[in-house]
Amino acid sequence: MTTHNKAQTNLIHAPRQAPQYIETVQPPLFRASTIIFKSTAHLFDRHWTDAYDYSYGTHGTPTTFTLGDNIAQIEGGRYCLLAPSGLSAINLVNSTVLGSGDEVWVADNIYGPNLEHLNHLQDRYGITVKIYNPIDANSFQPTEKAKLIWLEAAGSVTLEFPDLKNLVKKAQQANVLTALDNTWGAGLAFNAFDFSDEHLTVDITVHALTKYPSGGGDILMGSVVTNDQALHHKLYRMHAIQGISVSGDDTAQIQRSLAHMSLRYEQQAQSALTLLNWLKQQPQFSQVLHPSDPDAAGHQFWAEICSTGKSAGLVSVIFKPEYDLAAIRKFCDSLTLFKLGFSWGGPVSLAMLYDLKQMRTLENTHLQQGLLVRFCIGLEHPEDLIQDIQNALKLLD
């Protein structure tokens, strides 16, 4: 018999293999598209609704299921799906729940890309998009066609905390699914699946894991968490149909950051409160926005639901009308520690300029006229951040 060199085959099928499982601080990282079945029995005696269905990389690996389980636990839910970004997670919910002729309600302070996606669905598929005032539950008037209401607690730019209790009650009475963008609260400020003495719960939470869970400003990912198995399976089916998947390496990085997420959240929130107290004393601002401020719209709802006093590291300011766009752009360009960029939850503080006239539909009497700058607080010392803002403000005088 002819002998041959098995070097090439041995490169793929190594004759020796180290034991695969040891106990470590961080769970093992699995990178997989193909998953090897031990036998045809393992191939066929399984179903995609099994709790841990290892069949193909897009459907889940121990790495992705581990992070999903942990995110669900943090959020207070039972089931979690991961998506490549927060917006992808939002779109998964919209695609699963909404069909032609359905009605969806969104807060006037909704995350802009979500509204853009819904307007696209409205133009193409006849979905009706309705706007409500998040601090006035009476403005939410669902018809029999209503299928979904989007909630944000708090809004990511003007930071109003919604009348979550009454909005959820009205939605439940009308058989409307509730989806909460829980990125601000990160599962730490309150439990969205049990947030009142009446044990009220939302149906779905969406979380941009890009923010606090990642913590580094370098990874994109989102999550969809539910408590209801049937709803989870509907979302899971659409998740599979759309081929949604996440990188094992990115998943492992976020898993690694979860251990200190609450510490970072607390520090950034405390720094934001330090800035809040200082910003309220500055004459250039007509309004400073933060849910914990007694003057803030929706403060009473925040105080009731976030009873531990937790809040994220975001604070926004509205400049007095005499400061035009050129002046505010000069202010933003003069910041040095604050970098111009979207997102939050990372180590570097960020600032972003917004023109509310281009973002809002309803008349908002609780907001002053003027241009808005949102500060997303990082891990720098708050006194250094205050000095940075103060230096930039001096250039406006």
TrEMBL record:
Keywords: Lyase, Pyridoxal phosphate, Transferase. The keyword Transmembrane does not apply. The modification N6-(pyridoxal phosphate)lysine is found at residue 211. It catalyses: L,L-cystathionine + H2O = L-homocysteine + pyruvate + NH4(+). InterPro entries: Cys/Met-Metab_PyrdxlP-dep_enz, Cys_b_lyase_bac, PyrdxlP-dep_Trfase, PyrdxlP-dep_Trfase_major, PyrdxlP-dep_Trfase_small. Pfam families: Cys_Met_Meta_PP. Its cofactor is pyridoxal 5'-phosphate. One of its GO terms (biological process) is L-cysteine catabolic process to pyruvate. One of its GO terms (molecular function) is pyridoxal phosphate binding. Belongs to the trans-sulfuration enzymes family. This is Cystathionine beta-lyase. It comes from Acinetobacter genomosp. 15BJ. The lineage of its organism: Bacteria, Pseudomonadati, Pseudomonadota, Gammaproteobacteria, Moraxellales.
